[in-house]
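Assemble and predict.
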Amino acid sequence: MKAFLIYMLLMIGYTINVSSQEKEFYLQAGLLYDSQENIMLENRVIHVIGNKIQSIEDPEKIPVDAEVIDLGEYTVLPGLIDAHTHVLFSQEPQDDFTEESIATLVLENPALRTLRGAKSVKSYLDVGITSIKDLGNSGLFLDVALRDAINEGTVDGPRIFASGPIIGAPGGQLYGVSHEHQDLVGLEYRIITSVADAKNAVREHVNQKVDIIKICADNLPNNTRLTVDEMKAIVETAHSYDLTVTAHSVTNQSAWEAATAGVDGIEHGFNLADSTLALMAQKNIYLVPTENSRAYMHSYYKLSGSNPEELTWLNRYFENSKNRLLRAIKNGVPIVAGSDNYTDIRIPRGASSRDMFRAYYEAGMKPLDILQAATFVSAKHLNKENEIGILKPGSFADIIAVKGDLENDFLNTLENLAFVMKNGKIYLEKSN
Ligand SMILES: [Zn+2]
């Protein structure tokens, strides 16, 4: 681009910046959650100018003529983060994943798919989730388009950190697709076939302006997986562009290999040996446990036509997930909260995402640790800990408030949401 054009664009940006009217107000908090220190603070006021937090102050510092939002009866927190979503994909409880994916690709216009996603994202703000990491199953960069629509104000929704198509080995996660129709898989996944192709795939994603790289270390429930060398090439290329890499992993072997290759995060990690957890802790690789609560699983299986009481394996599932989560914590693996809920269980998607808090709580995680996993720790592993998941000078004004006692009545209090602000704009404000 010509130098004068760049100069002109910078000047236009500058003019817009200085001429916009910035709102200024003070939020008085009953309690304020310090997500970095993982403690509750008393008697604090948040000074917001425009879309940023200017300062955290004592109440005496409020000027007499200032606009004050009184949240003195509430606990104020940074907007929550769901680090594992698929807002452009929805599945009926009784349906098969591959069939639903193929139907979406073949029968649903991508514009319609995106518009449905636009409806779904609004529901995250309704439950206080102001940022999401959307990890694929989103066609060819529809997640990036939806992110941009939200950022420009066309659609209301949380901040989206978009991965674009998941990078994976032949077949992607779509099992049973015949050889002559494998091209369809390429509409939903970026299939790579070599180390050189792995590097190309990351560059293509960089070119489409993704925020994070998602890979399938294994393709389970499908039967192929990436090689360690392919994953290393992906990690090296992504890191050279300052992008983090997170890996879908079901088996212990693929998690071990992904960790060896240097990924930044493991999604699911349903089967992790202590040795893998120790390697993850040593390399500061985070885990996103994507289990569901008992209540969620009951709704899911009732809707799918099964009697959940007869599913004896469910008890084993809860035992396993609890055991693995507590072992990960004991080994010192950073936990990042993510729901992975994409099945339509007849409640809005945001409300369904909130089930992750219940699942972690039922598995024995402490309330403040769960909050930290959905705020500071999540943001830190996106290299965004100065912008989101935290309330401090310079961070975005993504602020929520709940009524109740988070430490002693966690789940009810978290659902008793009274205030939601994202980027300085108020989306929910209940009067006392
Ligand atoms: Zn997922």
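Residues 13-19 have pLDDT under 50 and may be disordered.
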